[in-house]
Design goal:
The protein has helices spanning 2-32, 38-44, 50-55, 60-65, and strands spanning 78-80, 84-91, 97-105, 113-118, 123-126, 137-144, 151-161, 167-177. It has four helices and eight strands, in the order ααααββββββββ. The protein is flat and about 60 Å long. The chain has 181 residues and is an alpha+beta fold. Strands 1-3-6-5 form a four-stranded antiparallel β-sheet, with no helix packed on it. It has a four-stranded mixed β-sheet with strand order 2-8-7-4, with no helix packed on it. It has two domains: 2-65, no CATH class; 78-177, Immunoglobulins (Immunoglobulin-like). The relative contact order is 0.16.
Length: 181
């Protein structure tokens, strides 16, 4: 019985994902084409839900999902001294795994880091909140707490700044050894 429930959940998720993909693909094309009459446009797409069909507005979830954040302000260039760091062998539940990634603003405008996010909660980056002037350096401190993870681990940190592209990725790795309990 549980297998059937799981299969139904998967089928429903696939249907929802397919509907969102179709909506994302169709919405920009329909909105950008001014030559079609409203009757043709409404015949080409089906509303995602009843509330949407009543007021004929685009689905806000789809609009949010397709939004691509562009860098704010004048662009700059970030250059890391190293883009990866290997902690080597470490123990489960260890908490003293920190590494400093140094970078330089190689652009002609101040570098503004708006976010730095680890690929999981075990990887926590700290980044400068102030603009980094052209030619100056800064640091992103990454702390890795493996918890119960074991074996080869690789985690990425996505740094979002006023660069093109806006996201730059750095990474850490480790071999996490099982700690006796």
């Amino acid at each position: 019985m549980n297998d059937i429930k799981e299969q139904i959940k998967i089928v429903l998720l696939v249907i929802i994902a397919g509907t969102l993909i179709i909506e994302m693909v169709m919405s920009p094309a329909i909105n950008d084409d001014n030559n079609e009459s409203p009757e043709i446009v409404s015949a080409q797409t089906q509303p995602v839900n009843a509330a949407q069909s009543l007021n004929n507005t685009p689905n806000p979830l789809v609009q949010e999902a397709v939004k691509i954040e562009k860098p704010k302000g004048p662009l700059s260039v970030i250059s890391f001294d190293e883009e990866t760091f290997d902690f080597g062998n470490i123990k489960q539940n260890s908490t003293d795994n920190k590494h400093v990634f140094k970078f330089t603003n190689k652009g002609s405008n101040p570098l503004i880091i708006s976010n730095a996010k680890g690929s999981c909660g075990c990887t926590v980056p700290q980044f400068p909140k102030e603009p980094i002037p052209p030619g100056e350096t800064g640091e992103i401190v990454v702390e890795y707490k493996p918890g119960k993870q074991k074996g080869n681990q690789r985690k990425t940190i996505t740094v979002t700044a006023n660069t093109d592209p806006p996201d730059t990725r750095i990474a850490i790795s480790a071999i996490v050894e099982e700690a006796p309990e």
